[in-house]
Amino acid sequence: MRRREFITLLGGATATWPLAARAQQPALPLIGFLSSRSSDDSIGAIAAFRGGLARAEYAEGRNVAIEFRWGQAQFDRLPTLAAELVRLPLKVLAAVAGAQTARAAMAASTTIPIVFGIGEDPVKEGLVAKIDRPGGNVTGATFFTSLLGPKRLGLLRNVVPRAQVIGLLVNQNSSQGQGQIKDVVQAADGLGQQLIVLNGGSDEEIDAAFASLAVQKIGALLIGSDPFFDPRRARLIALAARYAVPALYHFRDFPLEGGLLSYGASISELYEHVGEYVGRILKGDKPADLPVLLPSKFELVINLKTARALHLMIPPNVLATADEVIE
Predict the structure, then answer these.
(1) Order of strands across the sheet that contains 261-265
(2) Which domain holds residue 101?
(3) Contact 233, 226 (CB under 8 A)
(4) Which tens digits make up the pLDDT trace of 184-200?
(5) CA angle, 37 as apex, 105 and 195 as ends, to 5°?
(6) To the nearest whole percent, how much of the chain has pLDDT over 90?
(7) Is residue 20 part of a domain?
């Protein structure tokens, strides 16, 4: 073989080595991420989820890959989206933004580890056997936001003491909504507070509920905690402003975007917990041995600009306990 031919052959062979090496590299572990919300509505939540993964020493694109599916607040799509994800070679499936999301994931697979992030009681919703020993292939984190209805009712009464009638807007199509009705009605009876339950299970019902406020002489509105309401923040805040009704919401994104006030657990903390558990499972921990994580803090957030627009004076004792005040 002549020298020129040998060099040409050698050059061609070395050019193919990087391609062959890349072809032999193993695929990154794949995480599925199923949410009832939208991607635009979850930017902060996803950042927190990635932060939790980072605590477990995982980073998307470096040593793990993530496949997302978004329900866009259309809960009937969740089973189909969950089925799509479990057909992939998933190592773990994160199912967030409501017990319905977790149930869709559980129906799709009984073997893939599932980490939920919800606001409901996971035992009552049938997701786990016990908080401390979940059992099976499922664990996760909850902020128990649906159990805070009585606390929110008392807070709203302090902020709007002149309101003889308070409205409770809930999605009566969900088990979460039904549970909140029972808890808040019971609390209102104990306080001697007149309460009217309004159904908000669709955009049309939400519009009708706000339109009925004046007729029913509702002076303040408690917005139930439900994933159905989360992507409708702008709509709910705009309606509250249009009808000049003081409204209390379930997490801080509402007052950040113009709502009056919110009280609830930290959404960021919840998603960090989910991300960290996903990372721990990738390292070998079993869901059955990981206790469901509970909230460590609750946030009161007040938007004073909105309060002024409503000609509402926030009591000093409420302001003093606020975790965040938006001027």
Answers:
(1) 194-199, 165-170, 220-223, 247-249, 261-265, 298-303, 324-326
(2) 30-143+266-296
(3) no
(4) 999 999 999 999 999 99
(5) 105
(6) 68
(7) no
